[in-house]
Amino acid sequence: MATVFSPYAWLVPAFPFVAFAVLTAFGRSLSRTGAWLATAGTFLSLVLSLVIAIERMTGAAEDYRGGYEWLRIGDFSLPFGFEVTNLAALMLVVVTLVAFLVNLYSLGYMKGDDRISVFFAYVSLFTFSMLGLVLADNLLLLYIFWELVGVCSFLLVGFWYQKPEAKAAAKKAFIVTRIGDIGLLIAILLLFWYMPDHALDFVSLHNVFDPQNGGTISLGITTLIALLIFLGAAGKSGQFPLHVWLPDAMEGPTPISALIHAATMVAAGVFLVVRTFDVFEASQAAMDTVAIIGAFTAIFAATIGLAQNDIKRVLAYSTVSQLGYMMLALGVGSVPGAMFHLFTHAFFKALLFLGAGSVIHAVHTQDIREMGGLGRRMKITAWTFGIGALSLSGIPPLAGFWSKDAILAAALADRPWLFVVGAIAAFFTALYMSRLFFLVFFGKPRGEHGAQAKESPGVMTFPLLVLAALAVVAGFANTPWNGWLGQWLTGNAEADHASALAIVVSVAVGLLGFYIGWLVYVKGAVRRDVLSSRLPGVVRLLERKYYIDELYAWLFVRPLRALGDALTAFDTHVVDGAVRLVGAAANGIGKLNTRLQNGQLQTYGLAGLLALVVLVVAIAGRRFW
Amino acid sequence: MNTLQWSDTWYLAPEITLAAFTIALAVLDLMLPNRTNRDLVGWLSLLGLAAAGVFVGWQMYDLHAGGAASAAHSLLGGSYRVDDFGNLLKLAFLAATFLIVLASLGTIRQAEMPIKGEFYYLVLPAVLGAMVMSSSGDLITLFVGLELLSITSYVLVAARKTSGLSSEAAFKYYVTGGTASAFILYGMSFLYGVTGSTSLSAIGQGIGPALADYRAMVYVAFFLMIGGFALKLALAPFHAWAPDVYQGAPTPVTSFLAVVAKGAAFAMLYRIFLNTAMYASDQINGSAVRDDLFLALAVLAAAAMVVGTTGALRQHHAKRLLALSGVANAGILLVPLSLDVSNLHASLFSEFFYYLVAYVFMNVGAFAVLSVIAREKGDEAVSAFAGLYHRAPWTAGGMTVLLCSLAGLPVTGGFFGKLFILFGTVQTRAYWLAALLLATTVVSYYVYFSFIRQMYMRSGDTDQGLRVPVPAGIVIWLSVAATLALGVLPKLFMGWIDDVFSILADFLF
Amino acid sequence: MSMLASYLTLAAVLFCIGFYGVLTKRNAIIVLLSIELMLNAVNLNLVAFSKYGVNPALTGQIFSLFTMTVAAAEAAVGIAVLIVLYRSKATVNADEFDELRR
Amino acid sequence: MLKDIPVLSLIALIPLAGAVLLLFLPGRRSTWPRGVALAFTAIPLILSAWLFAGYEPILGGKAFAEHFTWLSIPLNAEAWGPDAAVASYRLVFDYRLGIDGISLPLVLLTGVVSLMAAIASVHIRKRWKTYYALFLLLQTGMYGVFLARDLTLFFIFFELTLIPMFFLIGIWGYFGREKAANRFLLYNGLGSAFMLFAFLILIATLGFSAEAATAGGNAFSFTGDYEVLLAHLSDPNAPANIAQPGNAMYLSDSLKWTAFVLLLIAFGIKLPIFPFHTWMLKVHTEAPPSVVMIHSGILLKMGVYGLIRFGAFLLPEQLDAWAPVLATLGVINILYGAVLACAQKEFKLVLAYSSISHMGIVLLGIASLNEIGLQGAIYQAVSHGLISALLFLVVGTLYERTGTTKLDELGGLARSVPFTAGILLTAGLASLGLPGLSGFVGEFLAFLGLFGSMKALTAVGALGVLLAAVYVLRSVLGITFGPMPERFIGMKDARFVEALPMVALAAVILVLGVYPSLLTDLMQHGFDGLLKQLSTKAGG
């Protein structure tokens, strides 16, 4: 069935871009209206993408591709086009929806900030780039938008540029992700030279790496390419060991954390892997790497999350951990699982961040030890946050449960030990979420602001409600008994590895974790410092995030600085010294001449005589002996 | 017809004119009462120089009147030749002297040179000597010309009677000059010995056969002469006297020494080497005497370029600096002659002469500027140029052009002169010379731009305008114009040289 | 030929003595004289060659006449210069004439 | 209509005319000189834009070639010597201008940057007349370099840029200006000396050709005409290619190598290639910003251009053989420059070293020896020109206000001068190769091209991209972000004259980043000749 709306898909990113352009052009003059304008732009794209998505859901419209030639050199040409697939359609909806809600939310959250128009300009730019990334039909174009979203994230993390932490965090975010980007870049270079007729678009990627007509590219190269792509993905999606930037990125305004560092951009890595999944499938080694890194990240980040006291950092580490889950899913070959989790996670994690934002808005602190007892004062926030927390902890029947279960099931089917890891991570997840939730909303107010905290305005609570609703229902898009989403995404009916064991375990660990949390932080049945008193080392280790940052400082930052200083010395003394030496040499000869000029005529004559003798001996003399 | 005919006097017209003017002016100078300004004598000597120049030009026209590509008139049994080589150089010398005298009018202070008249009429015999050197076909005439030039210039150097420096310079110049003459003469005597003749052409024919049994003596002859000439031309390391003498001598005399005396010595060198040394090789037992001799010249040229340029690096006295730059330039001027004359590279004289003319203009101009400044500040250090940009922007600009030419930067005569010489070296694959030439050129940037730094980037003690005497101004701007013209349209001049000059008719006869 | 050889040797010796004098003598007068000595060596050479050289002719002797004349003129100027110099410096020590240097 | 007027000569010489005109105008106040300078800077830009419009890659700009016989110098008109049949040898230096896909982008770059620098020269406080006269003279030199099609002419224009630069640095520079000026003059003078040496070798061999026989016999000539040299290069019957004893014009391999190495050093100094880079540090720090815009924006590109135009086209075998060396040098440049840029405490030095790093990328492009890489090299040259010009424009603007360029004395300027800070950030992002800005395209193409031949080296070089992010963010954020010292409170943001060129340059950078075909289409057939040469070498 021919598609009607897909040809207009390019409009989806266009709206936010227009908003961005207008805001940058005359942002200062229209501060608040500008904000509304940006929101409106996002809303338009939301509508359009919904239309597209619905169209594709109702009837299986074939993929649509459009675009023009960007750059032609000799007989190489680099096209510039967009492609609408079901995957893209889904991402469009997710991105635009979250973006719209965040815009709405920010209207309240950022009120009174004198650079609000700049803020919305950045957000619109980000939305544009993210949508472009989703729609890109070839790797190069994807890379371009990939970098753009990176920059937007950098700009927004550093939005409060006067805070040194924000500055540092922004720098860190950019540079660390850049490491991954280089991997991706090299992967693109490799593909360009190895692909038949230098094609970089995903369709030909799919065809070339398709198992039946495979073998065009050697396994080694394929693995290399896959790993490099994954390096890029790891950078963006904060996979170990490139996860360090994500928690620091929480220096940015909270809505940004929700939009970029929870729902959309960080998921771009997962999206990238899905987009190039054929390459991965062609190399088992790559798949293993993805799976193992993913699983490790999941449990690693979860453990750190247990010991953090900054509400946003806890959520950040949980994001890292969840992204790990998605990678794990991909590693074990379940694209639907990954996409499904990405889908649900976008909602409940955005919900959690926005909720956290509303809390921070109320109490002006991010330290959960200074909060508490907010449940009574901020009902909506508390309830929605609770839903989000439960959903994340995988308590049925909330969305998080279904998606996480899908992943665990896939892992169990593929490699049981990964399933175990995942389950433990799930337990930790539930634990730290309950800790967070109970510490914030239960008990007595601890911080000075806690007492007179009040509920946030409507523009901020409305998105919470919407997201909460989604966090509840989104899960039914793909339940063990109907794998609709998976089918819709991948086209072929996914062999769903629904297994009772997986369900039981995931439910069990979820509930257990939450229960323990309740015991410790509400009922006080177990003393809080039970761990920190018994094995302080472990707690310290977790609080300091396994000393990864320090490790990097030792491994890279200091050596670079040292090398820089060493080379500076080298440059000034050796290289430039050589130059000066040449000059000195010329001067030296000159000095000899000055030495000769002693005013004594007879000295001059003597010099002449010697010279003549030498000349004669050297030139004529050689003829005689 | 070995005796002097009346008809020959016409060919000697330029020389005779100069001689006549010399005597007349000497007498006039005696007659004039002391209080009258001697500039009159100066203008008259200018007239004499101009007249001689006209005659030379006329003769050149005559030589080519028949449309003959090139001809030469030899008189007094071939001991004196009126040919294009000679005429071209004569023109150059006369022009240079003309400019120098013109510049000196109004810039020489009475205190500096008590009896200016002497200077004005002693310049003439000096030029006469130079002209004789450039157009003799016989060792004797060459020697006489050389001595005429040298002796008069001894006196000129001493012209600043009152100053001990001047006379010390004169003494040094005298001793060096005398020694040089002695060497040259001694060498000549051997040349005469092995060939039994003093006429260059005869020597040229005789020297090849003579090699068979007198090879050593030929070597001695030529190396003695080379030593003498090296001393005269102040080629390193025979150059040490030059800075002293240049510093001590009055500025106009300095520039005369730097330009005319040098040029004349080169003329003599060309005469001797192209007419005799060229043939100092016999095919029978192929002894490479000729190659050795030219190689010796090349080595001397290289040494001069290196020592002159680097020495100038550490020099802060403008005149001494220009003296050392003169050493370097002498080296450059020597390069074309030192290159192997083959059918591919017969352009040595064009290259030499082009650069010589460029050198004349840039040097005379620079010395004129220097004398203007020195006259006003009484200080001849490079730092005397400080802030010239503010005091006389146009003069500063002109000086900049001249310096660029000295440094061999486009688009100036100096640039193309060096370019042609360079091309010659590369053509004959004398890459080592080319490399040295380039290297020294780069070093010389620093030397010459030290003036520019002073003029533009330092501020002098005073900022009130600098008064440039009209004659000096004319000279400066003539030189600048000529330098630029040579730089923008080398074709005109180079083409003219090529039309006029023929290596076959003038040498190798 | 041996005749010629001896003359040439004598001339060479003279020349060397002269040059030696130029280079070493402190007294400026002596220096001037040494130059004359060198020129005389040349004259000797020329005359010898014109007598015993290849195709003997008078040219050499004539040349030597020229040389002498010129040398005389030169010497005159030299002495004059020296006198002027003596006026200002009140010495004839060649090695004290080093006001111009560096 | 374009064909009728000598548009190239106009482009090259109009600035000179302006300079001459300036000498006769009053220079008391800045108005007159400035106005004239702007006018005479704008005209060539317009003309080159016109050129851009009328240029057809297929024709390779033959339509615009200009030629006046300038000087053909008789070396020797004698029938003399061993072969008496020879009538004359002539040395032919002609005035030849031409344009093609390689030079046109650089000409445009020259136009844009010069105009912007002229506008940005408001910061010049003294001797306007002299300043603008020299400024115009400099332009003539630069245009000439990119347009000349005769070796000698090229050299003359190349030298012509030295003198004005010496003055511009030495008179209007900062504290250490004289030293910097000297360093510049001597170092570059050395470079041009090397170049001249190589050129003369080529002229004396490749440039030798027989002309129509005259009455006196055959006439021969040595010429520096680029086209002739190219023709002889591939012509087996050219004397330069005939190896027989006594053939003085034979261009032996050793000679070729000599020439190649000489050229490599000559242009390596301009580029600059490590270790010949120290001179440009001084220039970057000591020269006035508007001059550095020209210097870093255009003069360095003359090295790139020369290396491709002569090193590559005239000596393809040597380039082919040395491609790995060039690539290695490029990688060294990239990493060395980047690491040092990370360690600097003076913003100008950061920029200087970053230039070194970026020029390394150009080297990579050249070393790739394929069309992508070569185009990438040119593209990178152009974009780096624009970016560094913009950066130094900002530097000048900031220095005007803060009086310092030390990183540790600056900070938080985004608050007091948000616009300038924003531009600075943009320029920084462009220079670290952010897609969508011109920097990325050049970088990407260069890497892409080289990757075809040398994968490992390229991968190593790509680390430079990471380091670029490090040093750019370190310095730019150091200046704009963080808490702001009190003394910067109440600073005025960029005036209109300052903002105008900033916006213009930023716009060009953006356009080139979004729509690179604008330039690459020009270069389309620019390298065909060279590539054919290389392929034949590979084949035979």
Automatic annotation (TrEMBL), chain A:
Residues 70-120 form the NADH-Ubiquinone oxidoreductase (complex I) chain 5 N-terminal domain. It comes from Cohnella nanjingensis. Keywords: Membrane, Transmembrane, Transmembrane helix. Residues 136-429 form the NADH:quinone oxidoreductase/Mrp antiporter transmembrane domain. Signal peptide: none annotated. Belongs to the CPA3 antiporters (TC 2.A.63) subunit A family. NCBIfam families: NDH_I_L, PRK06590.1. Coiled coil: none annotated. This is NADH-quinone oxidoreductase subunit L. Pfam families: Proton_antipo_M (PF00361), Proton_antipo_N (PF00662). The chain crosses the membrane at residues 6-27, 34-54, 87-107, 119-136, 142-161, 173-195, 215-235, 256-277, 289-307, 314-332, 338-360, 380-402, 417-438, 459-477, 497-521, 601-621. GO terms for cellular component: plasma membrane. It comes from the Bacteria.
TrEMBL record, chain B:
The keyword Translocase applies. GO terms for cellular component: plasma membrane. It catalyses: a quinone + NADH + 5 H(+)(in) = a quinol + NAD(+) + 4 H(+)(out). Pfam families: Proton_antipo_M. GO terms for molecular function: NADH dehydrogenase (quinone) (non-electrogenic) activity; NADH dehydrogenase (ubiquinone) activity; quinone binding. Its main location: membrane. Signal peptide: none annotated. It is a multi-pass membrane protein. Keywords: Cell membrane, Membrane, NAD, Quinone, Translocase, Transmembrane, Transmembrane helix, Transport. It is found in: Cell membrane; Membrane. GO terms for biological process: ATP synthesis coupled electron transport. Residues 136-442 form the NADH:quinone oxidoreductase/Mrp antiporter transmembrane domain. The chain crosses the membrane at residues 12-33, 40-61, 88-107, 119-136, 142-159, 171-194, 214-235, 256-273, 293-314, 321-340, 352-373, 394-424, 430-449, 470-489. NDH-1 is composed of 14 different subunits. Subunits NuoA, H, J, K, L, M, N constitute the membrane sector of the complex. PANTHER family: NADH DEHYDROGENASE. NDH-1 shuttles electrons from NADH, via FMN and iron-sulfur (Fe-S) centers, to quinones in the respiratory chain. The immediate electron acceptor for the enzyme in this species is believed to be a menaquinone. Couples the redox reaction to proton translocation (for every two electrons transferred, four hydrogen ions are translocated across the cytoplasmic membrane), and thus conserves the redox energy in a proton gradient. This is NADH-quinone oxidoreductase subunit N. The gene is nuoN.
UniProtKB/TrEMBL annotation, chain D:
The keyword Disulfide bond does not apply. It is a multi-pass membrane protein. Its main location: membrane. GO terms for biological process: ATP synthesis coupled electron transport; electron transport coupled proton transport. The chain crosses the membrane at residues 6-25, 37-55, 102-124, 131-148, 154-175, 184-208, 257-279, 291-315, 321-343, 350-369, 381-399, 419-438, 444-473, 494-515. GO terms for cellular component: plasma membrane. Keywords: Membrane, Transmembrane, Transmembrane helix. One of its GO terms (molecular function) is ubiquinone binding. Residues 148-459 form the NADH:quinone oxidoreductase/Mrp antiporter transmembrane domain. Pfam families: Proton_antipo_M. Belongs to the complex I subunit 4 family. This is NADH-quinone oxidoreductase subunit M. It comes from Cohnella nanjingensis.
